[in-house]
Amino acid sequence: MQLIADSGSTKTDWVLIREKKKEASFQTTGINPYFKSGEQIFCEVRPVFHRYIEPETIKRVDFYGAGCSSHEKTEIVKNAFKRIFPEADIFVGHDMLAAARALLGNKPGIACILGTGSNSCFYDGKKITESLFSLGYMFGDEGSGAHIGKTFIKKYLKKKIPVELQKEFEKKYNITDEEILNHVYKKPNPNKYLASFTHFIRENSNHPYVKNHVEQCFDEFIREQVSEFTNHRSYTLNCTGSIAFYFKKNLINALRKHEINPGKIIRSPMDDLIKFHVHRIQ
Questions:
Q1: Which of 198, 201, 263, 270 could form a disulfide with 238 if both were Cys (CB 3.0 to 4.6 A apart)?
Q2: pLDDT tens sequence across 257-266
Q3: Which CATH number fits domain 2-98+270-278: 3.30.413.10, 1.20.1260.10, 3.40.50.300, 3.30.420.40?
Q4: Sheet architecture: strand order including 89-94
Q5: How does strand 11-18 pair with strand 89-94?
Q6: Residue 143 region, left (φ>0) first, then alpha (ψ -120 to 50), else beta?
Q7: Which residue, among 63, 75, 4, has the nearest Cα to 37 in the 3D structure?
Q8: Cα angle vertex 248, ends 92, 220, to 5°?
């Protein structure tokens, strides 16, 4: 049996494959070696699988995760999994590779992730040949949920959004400015907290101010990330992630402004990633 996993900052989706068919799916918290130790990963993942399957029956694990970009970080994840799945061959790769394989298969193009965070690369049909170092939600992650939420909240706190939106926001959240700042500066996972405000932004996506705000964030994503790739207008831009999926119209508007052709835009890479791996199972 084989496990395939796709992990972001918020959650990890797992799929169990038996005889080239999906048998079951599981979900754990996000696994990012920048924020979690090997022991934390072991303690969070092991109980989930011990409830449903015998870990010793797993012969291969293909894990793709945010933060798994260096040898040091991938080893943290790999060593934790070796303790959980002692009989398995374990592959740990970056979540950008999962996105590229799911979105493009064996075709060249630009692959992107727009979820809680953001990232992008150029994929030649076999491997990633161009990529950017992710600066995270504080200095980068343009176009992500954290970025859209952060820039919106900044304008809200400075009373620079339309009055009717201000009132709707206060009605929905009933939260003080001090509570917002406390969440961002003193509590864990401020990127997830900031991204949570995209629910409100999505509910008001038809408001001209909101539409313009979201498209400005995507415009910054294109300028800061996508435009860095060689011949970026010669290939389609393909994207996975909840932000890309739910704000698809805004993303397409921004791409067309930059004369970039949109390609596949999906919420999750898992279904296409399963297809990619099933063909490789001997």
A1: 263
A2: 999 999 999 9
A3: 3.30.420.40
A4: 21-29, 11-18, 2-7, 60-65, 89-94
A5: unpaired
A6: left
A7: 75
A8: 75
- Return the bridge partners of 28, or none: 12
* Alpha carbons 56 and 218: distance in angstroms, whole number: 45
pLDDT band at 282 (very low <50, low <70, confident <90, very high): very low
Give the CA distances from residue 205 to residues 114, 130, 202, 221, 233, in Å, rounded to whole numbers and listed in that order: 17, 33, 5, 19, 28
Q: Token digits for 180?
A: 């917002």
Whole-structure pTM value: 0.83
- Stretch 244-250: mean pLDDT: 96
* Cβ contact 34:70 at 8 Å: no
- Tens digits of residue pLDDT in 172-219: 999 999 999 999 999 988 998 999 999 999 999 999 999 999 999 999
**Block residue for tokens 């435009």:** 227
Provide the residue ranges of all domains of the chain, joining segments of one domain with +.
2-98+270-278
